[in-house]
Amino acid sequence: MFNLTPMTPVSLLPIIPILILIGLVVLPVSRLLGIQAPQGKYRTIDGLRGYLAFFVFLHHSVVWYYFLHTGSWSFPPSALYHHLGPGSVSFFFMITAFLFFSKLMDAREKGIDWSKLYISRFLRILPLYFFLLILLFLITGIVTGWKLNESPSQLLRHIFGWLLFMEPNLNGVTLRLVIAGVIWSLAFEWLFYFSLPFWGLLLFRLKPSAMVLLFAAAGLALFVWVIYSFYPVMAWQRMSAFIGGMLAAYVVKLPGFRETASHWSTTIFIIGLLYIAIFIIPPFNYPFSLLCFGACFLGIAGGNTLFGLLTLKASRLLGQISYSIYLLHGLLLFSTYNFVISFRVVQQLSPQNYWLMITGIAVVLIIICCITYRFIEKPCLEAADNATKRIKQIIPT
What we know:
By secondary structure, this protein is mainly α. It contains 18 helices and no strands. Helix 4 runs parallel beside helix 8, helix 5 packs across helix 17 and helix 15 packs across helix 17 (351-382). The protein is globular, with a radius of gyration of 21 Å.
């Protein structure tokens, strides 16, 4: 069950040393760039984010190893490394649902600025995503020798698909492979964001304006179409992860829940549930694993720190750059294999040397993501208030 024999492509041995190393790297790099650890209301969730994003990186590192040896892009033959991908994304969906359902619940008393909510989402997601697209289009040109391998109309249609968070081939290049196929989750996130006014109307008696409802309905219809057209496989099961976060938003407000969730015995319970979900339940039995993950998330949302791990400064700094880690890690893996080392050389590496290479890539990834957060994400996030004021002057809501 636990593959501890040194050293295999799915060995567990590299995980802890690599996590310690990136924790040691993110501290001085963040200090140098002036990145502060988040001090928000949900510090355990801030810490969880970074580990989830990095687990997706580890998942795809192992997927790449087997792809280079078998030619099949599929789940690795390891229960743990299998779950580090889809399981981590499920937790991300729960986090999104929890945070925004909590906003809706608070809005019953404080109200909610829908314009600011959506503008902040645009400025949170789109700038780094557009940066990624520029790099992807550049790589496409380099790989194809800047030759047109499809008609101009097809090229424009495929570029438009990427703008809608689809992953079509572009000029004959399988870009889904280049970015490790992570874009699908953003389409599901947008679907959830556009559903929020309707949840607010139905469950919390909020009264979004007709313009907000019309805008949300258009966005909802668009991403239903995107998901139906491009990501139909297990779509309902994937969306069900949001339910865990929605329920958690209610449960954490119950009297005494935070005290129970923060107790050391709950930490043992969470660890036990994670063990069952990963190692006991078959990897493809998604509903039962998701139930276990949802129960674990309840404890973490309620303030459980996993013996202090999630509230470490390094953990919260990793959480601060988690979107960059999630979005850029696939591109870094591909670029390293294709442009720096070469696929042939990587394919011939022993498992030990492969993991040494992944360790080096992990360090580079953290440095790059600190830079992209500081110079792309952070300025755009800080511009949300001014952008909201300007747009309200143009389009009153």
